[in-house]
Known about the structure:
The chain is of the alpha+beta class. The protein has helices spanning 3-14, 48-61, 72-82, 96-104, 114-119, 176-189, 191-204, 213-221, 232-239, 244-252, 281-291, 294-304, 334-337, 339-348, and strands at residues 18-21, 38-43, 64-69, 90-93, 108-109, 132-144, 168-169, 227-231, 253-256, 267-275, 307-308.
Amino acid sequence: MTLRRTLMACMAALALPLAACGDQADKAKTDGAGGERVLNLYTARHYDGDLQVYAAFEKATGIKVNRIEGNADQLIARMQAEGAASPADVFITADAGALWRAQNAGLLQPITSKTLMTAIPAALREPEGHFFGASRRARVVAYDSTKVRPEEVDTYEELASPRFRGKLCVRSSDSVYNLSLVGALLEAWGPEKTRQWVEGVVANMARPPEGGDRDQIRAVGAGVCEVAITNSYYFIRMDRSTDAADVALTDRVKLGFPSLNGQGAHVNVSGGGVAKNAPHRAEAIAFLEFLASPEAQVLNSELNNEFPAANGVQAPAGVREFEGFTANPMNVSVYGRRQAAAQSIMTAAGWR
């Protein structure tokens, strides 16, 4: 990022509004009017369902949640600009690669929590405790079941094969979801095979990248392409939609879970970490622990169509039907470390 873009990001971040929700209290450290306990949440997730999760946390703990919203880069820039005076307690975002960016910028502190270590599998948390997954999403394939057999999309290699020349839809290379996927491929395959795969994906594009994941799924339904790379929850959201057109589309377009090196589909997380200068550290840890609780895990899965991250928690009906895939065991903290190399390879191959 250039100096000018960095300064613009900081200015935009500092202008973000503070939104408050909830108004109760709990034990231990107190703060705010009337001695109530508070939590300042910097969140890059913008799902309506999250508000219900926060409300459940407030009800369970009495801790008032103050929200500051923005995209991940805006919030990171804001926290950097605020420095040691930052009121941020928890940083939440929708991709492990973005969580790593915050960690790499020195904005997260490692924590030790028996509750989190027990609930969240090792592959879904940063090894030193800088961030923890709260929900899972798989980056997989939507395919036209009238034209493509399931076994034709059961590995990631096949997406770059001549079989799908001019028949693949995917969003842009600057999508953090794609950067994390290619980062995972770099970790698994090394640079040469990953470069060949990226070049194959570019050669297979049915159109220049445009739109979000649901646009790619709809493009498969419209016959623009036969396969599309998407996050699982976008497809599940359409499958469970009240929009009859989306539901009808998923009768023909199906979701496939390719395997990476025979070890299962690429899985990413939404999650969070405790801010380096968190003024309410105990409340921040309590919040992350609540997100790992069965109550919050099921509620988030029901409302946002993501898979639970915690051990032993089953997704609710509607999401559960897609939950039986094998997840690749790669640690999610790897993706961010590989993103710069991933972006370089994608740019060189012409993936816009």
